[in-house]
Specification:
Shape: globular
Structural class: alpha/beta
Number of strands: 12
Radius of gyration: 19 Å
Oligomer: single chain
Order of helices and strands: HEEEHEEEHEHEEEHHHEHEH
Distance between the termini: 28 Å
CATH architecture of the largest domain: 2-Layer Sandwich
Number of domains: 2
Largest sheet: 5 strands, mixed
């Protein structure tokens, strides 16, 4: 029989406007089982509860989730664990962490998709092979909408409201397409699944070549801005848009980035996709659980430290 410590795993939940996904992952981040449903236009939370209960009931007994991680559209209220996603008012202020805790009986940690991608990259991606003090990167998660995160010296930075990394609202086309946030020309209005499908009238996998190029151009502009602002060594691009649009998208991105990024000290900076099979939405959600749970355990094991919640910047080996 395997030791109990080797059987501990994660319950991972990824929420999006188009679909809800849940799964169980091993302590090493391998997906044991997964399930998903289309996001209903109404009664989202009963559908999510049913999905989570179904996954728990189907879980093989040799992997026991001890903590749950959730990735979802941002911004989020880290204090209450509630979402406040732009353009989805019906999701605002639902006590997500509390309700999922009651449903699962587990500690629940909630974070944005872009930050989840960063945690996953530090855990299982190519960045995990670098020494901690050399991990300077940004992430772009191109899902239904666009999200991101910033890592400096191996530490995922939080910001004042713990929502640093809303790169989907970088302006890439002044006076351009309307964004759900109310502004015009945001990256989300060009590089999110919902925006692409609305602009083309087609499913993402059938995006015309010319439009693929345009998406790459807009993401390339955003990457050039991120590189200049934050002096990172790489920008990691993941999500359904990058995965489905593939090489033509990355080619257009690279051309635009080369044209827009001219600072000499950024000559070695690269933009790349995530490693296939190593980083995905459920792995990102499990990475949120892993990182947040480890920080919580560290805090509770240090009673002499002042109690003020999670530190502003945290790192997990």
């Amino acid at each position: 029989m395997r030791p109990v410590s080797d059987r501990r795993g994660y319950l991972a939940i990824d929420l999006g406007p188009s679909r809800l996904a849940a799964g169980v992952l091993s302590g090493d981040g391998d997906v044991v089982l997964r399930d998903r449903v289309a996001t209903p236009p109404r009664n989202v939370w009963p559908a999510l509860t049913q999905l989570v209960r179904r996954v728990i009931a189907a879980n093989p007994s040799d992997v026991v989730p001890v903590v749950a991680g959730v990735t979802c559209p941002g911004p989020i209220d880290r204090g209450t664990g509630a979402m406040k996603p732009v353009g989805l008012p019906m999701w605002h202020d639902f006590p997500l962490r509390r309700e999922l805790g009651a449903t699962t009986g587990l500690p629940v940690f909630v974070d944005t998709a872009g930050r989840g991608l960063a945690w996953a990259e530090l855990w299982r991606g190519a960045s995990s092979e670098l020494p901690e003090d050399e991990r300077f990167l940004a992430t772009l998660a191109l899902g239904d909408d666009v999200d991101g995160a910033l890592v400096a010296g191996g530490r995922l930075l939080d910001g004042l409201t713990h929502n640093l990394g809303q790169f989907g609202h970088l302006i890439v086309e002044p006076d351009g397409a309307p964004c759900p946030c109310g502004a015009f020309g945001c990256l989300t209005a060009y590089a999110g699944v919902r925006a692409i499908e609305a602009a083309t009238g087609r499913e993402l996998r059938r995006t015309p070549a010319a439009h693929v190029d345009n998406v790459g151009i807009m993401v390339g502009r955003a990457c050039a801005t991120i590189a200049a602002m934050f002096d990172v060594g790489e920008i990691v691009v993941g999500g359904a848009v990058a995965e489905v649009l593939g090489a033509p998208f990355f080619d257009a991105l690279a051309r635009e980035f080369e044209q827009r990024s001219r600072l000499g000290h950024l000559g070695d900076m690269r933009v790349r996709g995530v490693a296939s099979g190593q980083v995905g939405p459920l792995i990102a959600a499990a990475a949120v659980a892993r990182a947040s749970h480890d920080v919580t355990l560290a805090e509770t094991s240090a009673p002499d430290e002042p109690s003020g919640g999670a530190p502003a910047d945290v790192s997990v080996d």
